[in-house]
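Researcher: Structure for this, please.
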Amino acid sequence: MQFLENYSLRPHNSFGIDARARYFAAFTSVEQLAALAEFAFPGQKADPQLILGGGSNILLTKNIDGWVFHNLVKGIELELEDAESVIVRVGAGETWHNFVLYTIENNWAGIENLSLIPGSVGAAPMQNIGAYGVELKDSFHSLLAWHTRDKRLDLFTLRDCEFGYRESIFKKQAKGEYIIVQVNFRLNKKPVFHTSYGAIQQELEKMNVQELSIRAISDAVIRIRQSKLPDPKQIGNAGSFFKNPSVTVEQYESLKSDFPHLVAYNNPDGTMKLAAGWLIEQCGWKGYREGDAGCHQQQALVLVNYGNATGKEIYDLSQKILDSVKDKFGVELEREVNII
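Model: Predicted structure, token format:
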């Protein structure tokens, strides 16, 4: 069993933070995971301090004084098919965007609006990733996860995962108890297009799209994301750092009377979702930089590492942003990125 000591995690997190792991090892199958767990934690609960996939939704604020397991379980297989849909089995270590492109090549609809979201397939259900009116749960079928205490595989259905807005059971009561190794999706042969959210329709018009397709929607989403969000390969970031907060209609109306240009959207449950980026921008943070930690100049929702910022410096900046939004609007923002 090969493992590395005092290993830099800079290549494995999209912020490019140079935190180090005391021990680091990768696995490419459930069998390798079981062998690695027994090697690292013989005869006891497998308790790695960090499971890494694409590293696109974490902020490392310290060194990891223990084991880091890197999930590289790959593979995309058609499991079931009928006249209306397919069920596709995907290894958790597959890159999310590559999987999206694979579904488009096969004309399987459902996740085209989630194009260019960074990270791995295994991380997607943990976060219930979403964009442009679509969430992962809309196409989710089930997943397999390895229980670290009992060292067994468990099956999770849609209900079992308890999906919410950027939430799942794996971020709450089951946090740290499971390692997701496979995710199964139910995708449609006849697409239902989602173009009303954000600027998709306008982008399609700019592209002079004559016939709507899942590929056209994917291309439009990619163009929008590339125009708004920095490439982690060019500048360290984890995409949107904060969640959009929800408030009651009464709170919204009170805020609207004080801030007439407040940006908000209707939630299905009757509450109002506020645009966190707008709130942050009104507090003067857009384009702010302190050392190598900053708030992106084009998108206030994105915190960035301009080179050699530490995780703590970025975390401290996020706290200042949280405090200023609370002081100005009375609204508490929540970090979307996982803090390690």
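Researcher: Any notable elements?
Model: The chain has a mean pLDDT of 93. The chain has three domains: 4-71, 76-188, 236-339.
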